[in-house]
Amino acid sequence: MKKVGLIMGSDSDLPIVNKATAILKELGIPFEAHIYSAHRTPEQVDAFTSSAYDNGFGAIICFAGMAAHLAGAVAARTVLPVIGVPCKSSNLDGLDALLSTVQMPSGIPVATVAIDGGANAALLAAQIIATSDSDLYAKLKAKRLSDAQKVLNKDADLLAKL
Ligand code: RP5
Predict the structure, then answer these.
(1) How remote is the CA of residue 54 from the centroid of ligand 1, in Å?
(2) What is the structure's pLDDT at 103?
(3) Residue 10's domain spans which residues?
(4) What is the model's pTM?
């Protein structure tokens, strides 16, 4: 199976990255995670990204806050699908990172999820990999059904309580 690459701009992004790794582990998808920053360690971003396709990656998720250029810098160096997760920081509630991640020039797409949306980023990466992996596709369908069932159970509980 293709691997998912996870790149975070700082270890302070780890709580959001952990939301993604939990989903990838649940689905049995291999992944590799790194702390590489577009600003602080651009050479490592370049080396990882330029070789990602040859190294068996099928999608890359980038996590960054503040002036969040990481996803764009990665997307500029590969035609693998790149998913950007804008991470909330103390001053602007993540709006800074959201706009820096989502407002890409045409030609270099980044699929941007919600602020701190680590779980959806992993699910989207899984859906991309599942287009050529029928076992994973079936797992994702089963997860959707079981997640829906949890909501229906809560609805039934609420009905019984009120
Ligand atoms: C970004 O700046 C990182 O992705 C992080 O979200 C933010 C703050 O980084 P630290 O100062 O906590 O290392 O590059």
Answers:
(1) 29
(2) 98
(3) 3-133
(4) 0.96
